[in-house]
Amino acid sequence: MKTSWRRAFSAMIACGLLSAALGVLPVHADVTEDSDPPVCFEYCAIGFSEGRTGPDGVPYHCLNNDLFYIEYPGTWYFGSSEICPIVFYDDSEVQKTIHNFETFVDASLSGSGKQVDRYVRNGGLDPYLKQVLNIRSSSGYQFDNQTNDDGILVYFLRKDGEAVASIIIWTSFGQVSIRDERSDAAPDPARDYGSIMVMPVADSEDLSSPEAIQAFVDSGKLNDRLKMDTSILTWTTKAFQTEHHNYLLCEGAGDFLDISVYIPVAPAGSKKWLICFEACKESEISYNAYHIRDDIIKTFRVLK
After folding, report:
1. How many beta carbons lie within 10 A of that of residue 154, not counting itself?
2. In 10 A of CB 170, how many CB atoms?
3. Is 84 exposed, middle or buried (0-12, 13-18, 19+ CB in 10 A)?
4. pLDDT tens for residues 156-187?
5. Longest pairwise C-alpha distance within the chain
6. pTM of the model
7. Which end of the chain, N or C, is less surrounded by CB atoms within 10 Å?
8. Rounded to the nearest 10 degrees, how much is the dihedral formed by the CA atoms of 29, 32, 38, 40?
């Protein structure tokens, strides 16, 4: 089952990366094997919520998968970020250039995954990278492999940790698609929709009671997971309950973000999650992620 999931998710990443050109499901960042921790769907699809309309007048979407259920605004996207593999967001008011994929055929890209990977890392893509990115060579760049599947190889080309390009290689017919990912975005805090992040927690963590969750928060592990130091973000906590779960609700106190994290009590053997809602304090969007948190969290339920 794990092998088949990897192949399906490899294809999902590839489709997500191509989707900016196709108009569906952008995936903006990596989901790697050593993410903390990875999310392994057996299936995942986007559907429409029955009879639920968001504050913007658009019917809600829902993410159907085998691990959890959640609804989110129908105009928002489902993707990933550097700290979280599952993010719902709306960047429609961020002024930026969207680059298209450019595709090339190269017989040396046809073969086993290991063979093609070796060719890539030895500079085989340099002529195409020069054409797409206007760089001399891939020397000094890192090929961050996102898949372990011979049929589809997906890379982020990185420079100093920042994603420079998305690369998708179909090894069965020697084709590569490359997209420039260098950002020229100019975000406006007043027009920030924020994001909803569903973040997996390691099985080794104890979230079996409100007291155990409080200890998790007090230890600084919540800040670690969010990549925010305790000196810039502190928490007040209280019990919270929906039809599906009991939570410890963590309300963040910081200078720049409105942020709430809901941590469901996880019985033994069940998956553990953090559900985070954040937006810039200066945001004037009345239905940003932080403002609609109560409406969204009541739809969340863990399925296994």
Report:
1. 24
2. 18
3. buried
4. 999 988 889 999 999 998 999 999 988 766 67
5. 60
6. 0.66
7. N
8. 90
- Residues 6 or more apart whose CB falls under 8 angstroms from that of 50 comprise none
Decide if 241 contacts 247 (C-beta within 8 A).
yes
Query: Which CA distances in Å does 271 have to 86, 200, 285?
Result: 15, 8, 33
Read off the tokens for 264. 């469901």
The whole-angstrom distance between residue 18's C-alpha and the CA centroid of its chain comes to 15
Locate 54 and state its tokens.
Answer: 């968001």
Q: Kindly report, residue by residue over 64-93, the tens digit of the pLDDT.
A: 899 999 999 999 988 887 788 899 999 877
